[in-house]
Amino acid sequence: MDRPGHHFGEIPGAPFGTTWKNRKECFDAGVHRQMEPGIHGIQEEGAFSIVVSGQYKDDKDDGDTISYTGSGGHEQYSDGTREQVRDQQWSDPGNEALRQSYLTGKPVRVIRGFELDSEFAPWEGFRYDGLYICKRARKEKNRDGYYDICRYIMERIPGQPPLYRRSTTFGIYRPLPGSEAVQPPVPAPASAPVTGRQRLMQQIQESLDTDLRAMGMSSRPL
């Protein structure tokens, strides 16, 4: 019997647009059964899922097409940033699994993370955005021209619900042109904080406003 998440295609109970607060919840749901690596798969069979989360600066997300960077070759520093310090290799299990998907044409689940610098990224958490096919797998130089990366071109399978796109207002999404898609619940007020500290101050202000309204009073902004 296959382990949870060790199959190709959509996971029952986790349709398009399902969002989790963190990678642990995504792991537990069986949608991406890796806590850190961005590629989950088996070398001989292919990749079951990938996470596009902004960890690699060579990634490019155009929605229905993703130019995805393979695993390995990076050092992670204490501040959370990554820097490529050596070539990526096909021998990496994740890289080989996704290259196998290119050969087989099997679908790959794509999860986008909130830290991804893309209008298609969720405002919060990690969101399942449907099935993609790996259309190309090759080696090329990274954008600095120093090291080899494993480059994959992922294309979304037609006929799925349209992707959500961020609006210019925090927490609000807008559908692709011509779409009637229902938008997910707004996770935060429309006046978007830019930093974590601003978001915290906003939450404190909202809590204060609620308490004061209960007492029949009004507050001034913090």
Query: How far apart are the first and last residues' alpha carbons, in Å?
Result: 56 Å
Note the main sheet: 8 strands, mixed
The secondary structure category is alpha+beta
Fraction in helix: 10-25%
- Rounded to the nearest angstrom, the radius of gyration is 20 Å
H-E string = EHEEEEEEHEEEEEH
The total strand number stands at 12
Q: Can you give the mean pLDDT? A: 82
Net shape: globular
What does the oligomeric state look like here? single chain
Low-confidence stretches: 178-196
Provide the β-strand percentage band. Answer: 25-35%
Number of H/I helices: 3
Topology overview:
Elements: E1 19-20, H1 23-28, E2 39-42, E3 46-52, E4 60-61, E5 65-69, E6 74-76, E7 82-84, H2 93-104, E8 108-113, E9 126-141, E10 148-156, E11 164-166, E12 173-175, H3 196-214
Parallel strand pairs: 3-8
Antiparallel strand pairs: 1-9, 2-3, 4-5, 5-10, 6-7, 8-9, 9-10, 11-12
Structure description:
This protein has 222 residues and is α+β, with helices and mostly antiparallel strands. Helices cover 17% and strands 28% of the residues. Strands 1, 2, 3, 4, 5, 8, 9 and 10 form an eight-stranded mixed sheet that branches. A two-stranded antiparallel sheet has the order 6-7. Strands 11-12 form a two-stranded antiparallel ribbon. A hairpin with a 6-residue loop joins strand 9 (126-141) and strand 10 (148-156). It starts with 18 loop residues before the first strand and ends in an 8-residue tail after the last helix. 27% of the residues are buried.
